[in-house]
Amino acid sequence: MRLASTVIYVSDVPKAMQFYTKAFGFEVNFLDPDVKFPGRIPGRQYQFGELKIPGGTVQFGTPALGALLMPGFPEASVSTSVELAFYTDDVASVFNQAIQIGGEALRYPEVMPWGQTVAYLRSPEGTYIAICTSPVINNAES
Questions:
Q1: Where in the sequence of the chain do the CATH 3.10.180.10 domains occur?
Q2: Cα–Cα distance list, 16 to 27, 45, 124, 135 (Å)
Q3: Boundaries of each VOC domain copy (predicted)?
Q4: Where are the beta strands (DSSP E) in the chain?
Q5: Angle at CA 56, nearest 5°, toward 53 and 62?
């Protein structure tokens, strides 16, 4: 078994995807701004889209779509329990680009005690994002 994708539920899928494409250069695999599915409730948004990212995909759906597909799905207004982490060799540049596009800085780039450079931000839809270098592996015995 392998992880297929991570789905983030947001109120405006095209807007969320625009942030990730502009901030990080990810490619849109597909976007359906008006998903046609039986059982829709008039006046609610049913949107779904997928971004291609190095190593996988990130998908976005509206809470109404989640509730339609999964009975009992909680329609949270803001995602606060998910963190996406992306590795890069240039943490400061990627972090600054994301902030310019509308991300909220939570922790500016800094070298951690274990040697990894890490920065944290929150995307406009509320997802926590870590921008970091690959972990420093120290196999030396103490």
A1: 1-76
A2: 13, 14, 7, 28
A3: 2-134
A4: 6-9, 27-32, 48-53, 56-61, 83-87, 104-111, 117-122, 128-132
A5: 80
Q: DSSP letter string over 4-45?
A: --EEEE-S-HHHHHHHHHHHH-PEEEEEESS---TTPPTT--
Residue range(s) in the chain whose domain bears CATH number 3.30.720.110? 78-137
Distance of CA 37 to the CA centre of its chain: 25
pLDDT digits (tens, 9 = 90+) for 79-103: 556 789 999 999 999 999 999 999 9
Architecture of domain 1-76: Roll (3.10)
pTM: 0.86
The CATH T-level fold of domain 78-137 is 3.30.720
